[in-house]
Design brief:
Radius of gyration: 29 Å
Strand order of the largest sheet: 6-7-10-8-9
Structural class: alpha/beta
Helix content: 25-40%
Number of strands: 10
Strand content: 5-15%
Length: 568
């Protein structure tokens, strides 16, 4: 049985995904407590059933794992937050994103001549609870039309501007406004025949500002068709003149969750030692397919934008795959988002303010027993895709792998308010900005370890990823960090040492169990031989006549023994 290093058993309670208790059917005097962590590590404890044993322990632990309200959630963070806020150089990461400042940077100001306007239609979240209060819409679309259009989109998530591309401004003779928009699916009905005039007018206004309009539906077409049976669906192109529709074929949150669980299971198992089957097993998890589709579709979107077109991205509700593609496309197009500050702004804008449901996807506040099936690694997939871009473009990012690893390890641990709630309204209702610190506060406390020493700001303006399947790499420093079968124990780094993950590539040496046994036997024999040789060496080195009588080969062996034993 493999011996686990001490760090393997150290984890915060909030990293627990599920706690289960069972009677040991083989030893009825014992109970089993099974703990599953969010990274799929599985731990089983055997507890002797004695008269003093109290089942309240299980109940208490589960209440910590599955808090019923934000006040209980805050208990994990309050003490830490108070310490951080008292630091001399405290930086409030909640202030890193101001929508008006960011859109002004892009070129969309209050007095712009782009055919766009700032709208207060969602003030107080009156239009859509999962959208930000700050919205940008076409100038010729009134707030009333926005309200009517929102009724035709799931959860009221009508098409809203996410990004304006200013890259072609010098050669844009036709005053095109290439833009990225985002929304949820429409409510076209079972036959797709239902239409909404306000939605049609809104789509036409977006198209008229640019060369052409392309709709990227993130879902597989079959899934989109099935959604029509549940009141959703996809655009009936008979209702939208000269608009192109593309299905991205990216599977849903459930397939994503199953894919991650399979990959975790593989990367935590002894199967990594099977050189003949390991990569086939990785491919079988489907994780690479997700990453490939994200990179490919983001590249296509970025190409369309550079050609003065506009793109509307949506999935079912517009807060999962939509956030992935929208954010990735902008990273390809805009060097600002490849800086630490710019990346933080992008996460705040396209993930938090546009309502990616971090609480649901991270498994926070779920049902007792951990039975919530809404958890899914949507944000992790995005980070992995960015990791691929970083590998392919090492000079184009201000941040390094450590930065992505920090986010990947902490986005679902409920320590930072950034990732605790589903949208801006929930954060506002629960005073998240007062009760918690932002993850960007933590980043800026210790900025240096996340800087890419090879960063060249002017290296490449537009990124063109190689999304070919063979070029996608397994994020070993993340997925294999807890594998107990890796030979070198330096793989087991605790949370304080995450910045050294980039060094792990040197330690991935895989051997089969039978090979390990043979090596151990060789090591034992070698130790015995060294003891004999050590005594022989002591005699020879003190006898000059004997030393001089040795041939060259014997002297060479003697020198090797000396070096191996570190003898004087």
């Amino acid at each position: 049985m493999i011996k686990l290093p001490e760090d393997y058993l150290k984890f915060p309670i909030i990293s627990i995904s599920k706690v289960e208790k069972n009677l040991n059917t083989k030893e009825y005097s014992m109970y089993l407590m099974d703990i599953t962590l969010k990274d799929s590590r599985f731990l089983r404890f055997s507890i002797i059933n004695t008269p003093s044993f109290d089942f309240k322990f299980f109940v208490h632990l589960e209440s910590k794992v599955n808090p019923k309200n934000p006040k209980e959630l805050y208990k994990f963070t309050e003490a830490y937050n108070e310490v951080i806020k008292k630091e001399k150089n405290y930086y409030n990461g909640w202030n890193i994103y101001d929508p008006e400042i960011e859109f002004s940077r892009q070129g969309v100001t209050r007095d712009n001549n782009l055919g766009l306007r700032y709208s207060e239609a969602n003030k107080g979240f009156a239009l859509c609870e999962s959208y930000p209060e700050f919205l940008i819409a076409p100038k010729n679309i009134t707030d009333l039309q926005m309200r009517l259009a929102s009724q035709y989109r799931t959860k009221g998530r009508l098409p809203i501007l996410a990004y304006y591309y200013m890259g072609n401004i010098d050669q844009n003779d036709n005053n095109y406004v290439p833009t990225i928009w985002r929304s949820a699916q429409n409510k076209g009905g079972i036959m797709g025949s239902k239409k909404n005039e306000a939605d049609i007018t809104l789509i036409k206004s977006i198209k008229d500002m640019s060369k052409n309009l392309f709709i990227y539906d993130c879902r597989p077409k079959l899934n989109a068709m099935a959604n029509r049976l549940n009141g959703g669906g996809y655009e009936n192109m008979d209702h939208y003149d000269n608009v192109d529709l593309t299905f991205c074929e990216i599977d849903n949150i459930h397939k994503a969750r199953n894919s991650l669980n399979s990959l975790y299971s593989l990367c935590l198992s002894e199967k990594i030692n099977d050189n003949t089957k390991f990569w086939a097993s990785v491919d079988g998890t489907g994780w690479f397919t997700f990453v490939y589709l994200l990179l490919r579709n983001a590249f296509e979107i970025s190409q369309l934008i550079q050609e003065n077109n506009s793109v509307l991205i949506h999935c079912s509700d517009g807060w999962d795959r939509t956030s992935q593609l929208s954010a990735l496309s902008q990273i390809l197009l805009d060097p600002f988002y490849r800086t630490i500050n710019g990346f933080a702004v992008l996460i705040e804008k396209d993930w938090l303010s546009f309502g990616h449901q971090f609480a649901l996807r991270n498994g926070i506040m779920k049902k007792p027993g951990g039975g919530d099936d809404q958890a899914s690694p949507i944000f992790l997939q995005f980070l992995d895709a960015v990791h691929q871009l970083l590998l392919q473009n090492p000079n184009s990012f201000e941040f390094n792998e450590n930065f992505l690893l920090f986010l990947a390890k902490n986005y679902n641990l409920n320590l930072y308010g950034t990732f605790m709630f589903n949208n801006d309204k929930h954060r506002k209702d629960n005073n998240a900005k007062e009760k918690t610190i932002s993850v960007w506060t933590e980043i800026y406390r210790n900025y240096e370890p996340y800087l890419n020493i090879y960063y060249s700001p002017n290296s490449v303006k537009i990124l063109k990823p190689n999304f070919a399947y063979y070029n996608i790499q397994l994020w070993r420093a993340f997925f294999m960090r807890n594998n107990p079968y890796l030979r070198n124990e330096k793989i087991f780094l605790n949370d304080d040492k995450d910045i050294y993950f980039s060094q792990l590539n040197d330690f991935f040496i895989y051997e089969k169990e039978e090979d390990k046994k043979k090596l151990k036997e060789k090591d034992n024999k070698y130790d015995e031989l060294l003891k004999l040789t050590s005594g022989l060496y002591s005699k020879i080195k003190d006898n000059e006549e004997m030393l001089n009588s040795l041939d060259d080969k014997s002297k060479e062996i003697l020198e090797q023994v000396k070096n191996k034993l570190l003898l004087p």
